Amino acid sequence: MNQPQFLSWAGIARLGLVQSALGAIVMLASSLLNRIMVVEYATAAALPAGLVAFHYGVQLSRPKWGHGSDAGWRRTPWIIGGMAVLGGGGLLATYATTQLAGPFWPVLAALVLAYAMIGIGVGASGTSLLALLASRTVESRRPAAASLTWIMMIAGIVISAVTAGQLLDPFSPQRLLLVAAGVVTVAFVVACLAVWGVETAPAAIEQRDSAPFGQALRGIWADPLTRLFSFFVFFSMLAYSMQDLILEPFAGLVFRMTPGQSTSLSGAQNGGVLAGMILVGVGGHAFGGKAGLKLKRWIVAGCFASALALAALAMAAQAGPGWPLSLNVVVLGFANGMFAVAAIGSMLELAGRGGAGHEGIRMGLWGASQAAAFGIGGFVGALAVDGLRGALADTGQAFALVFAVEAGMFLIAAAIALKLNDQMGQQAGRPATQEALA
Questions:
Q1: At what angle do helices 9-27 and 173-195 cross, to 10 degrees?
Q2: Is the pLDDT of residue 402 over 60?
């Protein structure tokens, strides 16, 4: 096979636009509709949490999609097709949400279908996009490329959340549908234009060799570093995701924020993530030196800072209005960005272990770990809030306890990161296991 034509910085930025578009549509389902269901339609938080958990469950098949894109002619059709399914799911979910005042079971069936489409779309497009980025980016640029593309994804979430928040007030179902249609249309067009023509080089259209799925999966799981990194992704994302579905309801129930205000708060949090990625990944030269040092300095520090920010959020739940909530969530976002940017860079660096042609299945494995964590964490967090609100008859205290548990989870993630740092140092310069991958 010919040597691949590596992406320029402009090409990497183009792929980052696809991440921006993907994040903008996911924001509708995981953030905006969550708030609308709980506050405007007075449903239990477990309903949107269960739907989001279901869409993450669908994403457990990411390794299979990644393996399919490894074996296929090109990854572009997977990306565009996935975005189309994702956009359709986002529109269906929005419409079904506006019908919650009517008969419940038909609406629930529509919501289940919509979130299944969202899970399929995110898995197919996101896994293939990361595999394309890992395989077409020169090794020395991979960590910085990860930082750039994730910064662009967070920027897309921030822009769409802030814009949607401003356009939603005063709230009405019709306005919600118009805003969702606008977000989906713009995101899909941007994604298509961004990925178009990237795989035009001869090497990109040659069919890649690939072992059967089961053999390939066993081979990469046999690598101890890949396995430990999968555990780190799971536990760190579990710690992060427990607050993901309850932050906007928390703002509405405890701080009496409107839908637009709480959506903008979510945008502020992601703005903090963006700032953390920029300052740590670029200004802080997070990608200089050995991979183990990156994990020690940035992932561990980010996990500890996230724990402190969540402890402060627990105090905010007791204090109520008057607490600097926006500042608190920005700090939390910044801390999340610290560990995320180094973890993502390491993910791209490790994707090629065992040779070219297996980037998709590795990204799929780590994507499945993240999806499992988000599905479990989001649902458990929302379910815990519902249960504690009923048991304690104090909404603020219920949220405080859940935020405190999340802080403890981040400390556990930091301990795993330290062990991962040690193993990366031990394996530096040694080739990964290639058994069962030949």
A1: 160
A2: yes
